[in-house]
């Protein structure tokens, strides 16, 4: 991979049925997802050929489809499902994600809760 070749998808808002509380899984809630894919973009940059890169629109559509079916307790499991979708689309690329629960049902708390994970990301790669 050429140093610095990354595709970023930021602020993907997804309505998903994820949470420890019954009503979170029943009713759903908003999540926000940032994804980074590490790959060599030099060929697509030269050729302007979509088949030489990772078509990010496929990721967005696949993740939208995922959340229509997903029901789980933890955002950790949700993140694992995201990685599995991305690997089915693009293979074992270096991937990074930040998954935020936009309005966690915690009394007196108005912030977000997030997890950050990497897959196939060596210590030499940075974003």
The SSE string, one letter per element, is: EHEHHEHEE
- For CATH, the homologous superfamily is named as GTP cyclohydrolase I, C-terminal domain/NADPH-dependent 7-cyano-7-deazaguanine reductase, N-terminal domain
- Determine the fraction of residues in helical runs and give it as a percent range: 25-40%
Helix-strand category: alpha+beta
Strand order of the largest sheet: 3-1-2-4-5
Rounded mean pLDDT score: 92
Q: What is the CATH topology assignment?
A: GTP Cyclohydrolase I, domain 2
Rg calc: 16 Å
Number of strands: 5
Strand content: 25-35%
Query: Number of folding domains?
Result: 1
The major pleated sheet works out as: 5 strands, mixed
CATH architecture: 2-Layer Sandwich
Euclidean distance between termini CA atoms = 13 Å
Query: What is the CATH top level name?
Result: Alpha Beta
Helical segment count? 4
What's the shape? elongated
